[in-house]
Amino acid sequence: MKYLKILYVQVLIAIVLGVIVGHFFPGFSTTAKLLADMFINAIKMIIAPVIFISIVLGIAGAGDLKKVGRVGIKGLIYFEIVTTGAIIIGLAVGNWVKPGSGVNSAAVQAQPAAKAAASSQGIDWTEFIKHIVPDNAIAAFAKGDIIQILFFGILFAIALAKMGEKGTSVIVGLEKINKILFNILHMVIKVSPIGAFGGMAYTIGKFGFATLAVLGKLLITFYVTGFLFIFVVLYLILKFNGFSLWKLLGYIKAELLIVLGSSSSEAVLPNIMEKLEKAGCSRNVVGLIIPSGYSFNLDGTSIYLSLAIIFLAQVFGVNLTLGQELTVIGILLLTSKGAAGVTGSGFLVLTSTLTILNIIPLEGMALLVGVDRFMSEGRAIINVIGNTVATVVISKSEKEIDIAQYKQLVEKTGAA
User: Fold this and answer.
1) Residue 197's Cα: distance from chain center in Å?
2) What CA–CA distance (Å, rounded) separates 405 from 403?
3) Label partner for 342 (CA 20 to 30 A): which of 1, 125, 214, 304?
């Protein structure tokens, strides 16, 4: 019975119970969604201040702005290379497996099709660029707008760093506030099994397994592609840097199960940051890479977007040329970043990309509505793993990781 006291065991049991309850008692889905939403909201209430303080402590605490700039540039280059790889893998597997072949495009019904197309205006790049700079910093925190918080946090941190010793008291104060926030996090995480149960019960109760009958091939293809990305690409990246992917996954297994149940990477973002610091990664690197990766290193989302485009092209019999697929890669590299931090960004980016391509009917979006929820867990898990790996790798490249501490905590014990 001692195992029942372990968090990841509790979450795993909650997920199984959620599937059972959702299947046999679909009417419970409304209440289940309430439980899941309350848990995610409890996490969201501390994400904005945690990200802001992490960015400030990561930059101002480093003391060397040139070093901070170097870490930031390394992070952005890494993000672009890896997300490009994710997009290419999604396209390659989609072309090979052909998940859209045999799907009847007549299954696209008028009403949901119109609803899907209604959000297809795409991304207004002028508005997006203007949106990066908040007109009200307090409002950015109130809305939880991650990109605006990052922008304000970077400016605040640079200004604080320029104060030198006079800014020490502010840094000390922020460190104390940070400890309070993580104490709140620890309290919230204790009820994560309830959130995981609610999220899974809602998904199964609302959409049911019948949804998977028509689009099961797409769902399987997506998860196989994600599996390949994690256990080939990310495995090799960590192997090259002298780390074990399996041990790292064992170290964050509780967080991954929480993401599986809640279908949200937000639910574990602060916890992942804390675990990486405990594992020996420098606070400066963790504070920069995790928050920025949360917006710009969405590997799972990149796989989903490229695979979805190939799927819809196959459904409607559109044969994409090599040039068109290269165009897809280029567009997704921009649009996937453009919708960072926007609620429902997956569909927004997909409709925006289809609008730019202008060769695949937007009505096909309706086909993805039902199955999308079943892929959101996979997207979130891949995103979390990708950002965790990025932080470890960049910490190693900057010599900002205590290897002995990492080996002891992660690779010898793999304990959560």
Assistant:
1) 20
2) 5
3) 214
